[in-house]
Amino acid sequence: MLKQPLTAMYVEKLLHMNKKTLIVVVGPTAIGKTAMGIQLANHFETEIISADSRQFFKEMAIGTAVPNPGELAAAKHHCIQHISIQQKYSVGDFEKEALSIAETIFKKNDFAIMVGGSGLYVDAVCNGLDVFPEVLPEVKAEVALVFETEGLEALAAILKEKDPKYYDKVTLQNPQRVIRAVEVCLSSGKPFSSFLNKNKGKRPFNSIKIGLNADRQVIYDRINKRVDIMMENGLLAEAKQVYPQKHLNALNTVGYKELFKYMDGEWDLDFAVSEIKKNTRRFAKRQLTWYRKDEAVKWFDFETVSTDVISYINSYTEKQD
Known about the structure:
Layout: H1 8-18, E1 21-26, H2 33-44, E2 48-50, H3 69-74, E3 77-78, H4 91-106, E4 111-115, H5 119-127, H6 137-150, H7 152-162, H8 164-167, H9 175-188, E5 206-213, H10 216-232, H11 235-242, H12 257-263, H13 269-292, E6 297-301, H14 306-320
Parallel strand pairs: 1-4, 1-5, 2-3, 2-4, 5-6
Helix pairs in contact: 4-5, 6-7, 6-9, 7-9, 10-13, 12-13
């Protein structure tokens, strides 16, 4: 029961906020999200928030396919190369920053654009983060010891025993996520998955998700071509610049870790490049798996003209009024 009646001003504010729309452009890497995001931003005369966690870092440009100077000039972008690989920056940090930016954009525009390939970061902004119990220090130390002495496979085995549901869902090659899940399982005595999708807050805006896709071979060909262009544009030199800091988590990413193996003398350069292509293709497959589970995504062929997407957005928002 309300402690006080809704005033006309408050009702008007609620109605006004409900008209605000965050347009999210998602899809696999190299599919054309940046170009579509810019076209939508120009049409709606608004700004873009990047939700690509690989593009946050100042020291990484070529290997993360940061928008080029012309693209950055075509529409105002946020969260592009705005932090250093030395900084700790979590998905929670991004959620707070992105929501603050969106609030500022919404003060002058009914639309904001978010472009991203990082599903967890997009979900954090659209839906909020899950709340987990505090991890006991002794558990954190124990898990770290297992990881150091027995490797990621041992932790994955523990996760499979404690939470088979999350084990089947998580990317087992991602140390951070496996470690985090095992820590929560051991600290709480409950499955990590039991804390997912609980207590998420309502957002003061609507979200509409636009997905870009293509046949698998088209995606793979675009990825292979992009990697070749990256190498031509100086990816190896960029990797050499950050090589002394290769232990940082930000650099444990496709395009850099393979070239580090070349620099360590483990692989020759041609093989390292082929591994970048292979691992990027696998990354694209994981992206699609994530987004295909989201029924809110409206899929378009990657060659769809922006006017068709805009027509869909206008139709969708009219139904929300």
